[in-house]
Amino acid sequence: MNPLLVALGSAAGGVTRWLLGGLIQRRFGAAPAIPGGFPFPVGTLLVNVSGSFLLGALAVIAARQAGDSTATRLLLMVGFCGGYTTFSTFSLDTVALLEQGSAGLAALNVLASIALAFAGTFAGMLLVRALLARAA
Questions:
Q1: How confident is residue 131, by pLDDT bands cut at 50, 70 and 90?
Q2: pTM score, two decimals?
Q3: CA distances in angstroms from 36 to 31, 67, 81, 128, listed in the order given
Q4: Which of 11, 51, 93, 107 is deepest in the core (most CB within 10 A)?
Q5: Helix, strand, coil tally for the chain in percent (to 5)
């Protein structure tokens, strides 16, 4: 049953990443910084940040869940978040920026992705902790 939970979560996360990342990229990042170049990967960046936020929130929920949280952890944390966040796409996007000669944009993508992903995880944890404290 555990592999099925991870597979279902991963499929849902991957589809969500594809839909949401593409929507964000078309809406906010379609224009390349350099004519004919690779556009800044704002869709990938925002998917990684929101995935980090969600994973942080789920980690707090799983830690406070009474009883066994294995199913929740496998379906949502390992499966959905694993399929949703896109570190390999982030790496490919960054290399594409470097190859087109946009070292500054590549560095911005690395710094923003790392800093905002950590901030997203922390914010997700803080939000859920505050909501749980308020509900208690």
A1: very high
A2: 0.83
A3: 9, 55, 33, 43
A4: 51
A5: 80, 0, 15
